[in-house]
Design brief:
- The strands form seven sheets. Strands 1, 2, 3, 5, 6, 9, 12, 14 and 15 form a nine-stranded mixed β-sheet that branches. A five-stranded mixed β-sheet has the order 17-18-19-21-20, covered by helices on one side. A three-stranded antiparallel β-sheet has the order 4-8-7, with no helix packed on it.
- It contains nine helices and 26 strands.
- It has four domains: 223 residues, Immunoglobulin-like, CATH 2.60.40.1730; 94 residues, Neutral Protease, domain 2, CATH 1.10.390; 141 residues, Orthogonal Bundle (Neutral Protease, domain 2); 31 residues, no CATH class.
- Helices cover 25% and strands 33% of the residues.
- Its cofactor is Zn(2+).
- Belongs to the peptidase M1 family.
- One of its GO terms (biological process) is peptide catabolic process.
- Its main location: membrane.
Amino acid sequence: MHGGINASNGTAANNANCNYLRLPRNLLPKFYEVLVHPDLLGSTFQGWASVEVGVVNSTDLIVMHAKQLNISSIDVRYKDRNEEIEMEKYRVADECEQLYIELRFPLLEGAHLFINLSFFAALRKDSSGFFIESYKTSKGDEKYLAATFFEPTEARSAFPCFDEPNMKAKFKFNVIRPNNFISLFNTEKVTTGEMKVSDAETMDIFEKTVKMSTFLLAFVVCDFQSKSTMTRSGVNVSVFSPSETISDVDFSLNISTRMLEFFEEFYQTKYPLKKIDHVPVPSLKFKGMESWGLLLYNSSYLLYNENESTEEDKKELVSIVAHVLARQWFGNLVTMDWWSDWWLINGFATFVEGIGAKHVFSGWPLLEDETSDHLASALHYDSLAYTYPLSFFSEDPDKIKNTIYSILNLKAAYIMTMLHDAVGSDLFRASLKHYLDKHKFGNVHSEDFWDSFAQELNWGSQTNVREMMNTWTLQKGYPLISISRNGKKVTCRQNKFVENQGHLKFK
């Protein structure tokens, strides 16, 4: 067999055996160029991806992620000689969401390849992956938009990719959309970034991204309008909305701009992208999505109408904007190596959102209220019999998605508060900057964050932040200290606190 392989002569093995859910490290992605073409009326999309990979170890099998995608053609060739590589067949293992491309001969170690793939699929309707949404105007007209929600493991359902957080690469996207719509991506469009492809459609061409994880990618096709401003450091901030509610973005635009400026000072690190967009999605299943440079929100948490929204709506909006902006550094610039440390980035953002909110509205007790709420909720869920440690290991995407929010975010946020109070604000921020400087655009384990404090601490050999924090992250629950006295004898006990339907149990 010579050159490319298409769907008619490839093999689609929908029930192929899944021996290992993690991708092998024989190949590492370097750069993606992707074209996406959604059909909003037909609720489908098609696309093309060219993935440049480096061959770390010789292999005759390419393994990538693909989920609910129909692969129509595949072509693999060496980069330096534009030479096609002969393939035997491909197969898709639906149960492990992987695409296998079997080659006739082993790849050359140290070589670079282009993996070129064409694909098509249905736009999803569950606010996940690449999905379609609709909203109605005041006149009752139904309007459509398409958007993405990839975290944690859904980029693979929009295009074939190496969809693991520690397989970072750079991305260049092109999006075809109707002439009367706009498209948005993590980066801004190139200077001459529009190309007419038909009488009805235009292709938008976007700048290349920084090195990043697939779950942080985002793109939107919609008919929204926007208002924009510039931060003191030159970042363009925009908030989008349907035309009828464009006046409701003013509060969000003001808050997000001030918050971005605050976090640049808090992290002591400039925001690394040129722009940041905030986009409402009517029925988004989460309050906000922290993709890099293009943030998506449930509309209720981004649009604010002075005549209709309440004071509580305003506070909620401020907290959500603070949370998703906090993640732009701690989670996006520096990303966990695997989902076992997902709690670290979400918990830190939950901790920092109160600090950011208090900076913008110093008269509101947002930080105090959130700290109290986080503690109460975390204590409740962490006392249940089915709780689990903050840091847990799973290779199964379904198990990753089904973690308990109150453990992952709220307990993690509160132990960050404990650490902050233990070492003091100055040392905490110095350690944070050391961590960001050392690991920017890279991947980390939670121990890397704890170890950043060792570079700044001057407590002597008796203090070990990693050891101290691991007692809270590697074991589930929290301790209950009980003291009993019998005459002159005092007995102290430490047990795991367990709540069971209102009754206290000790283990």
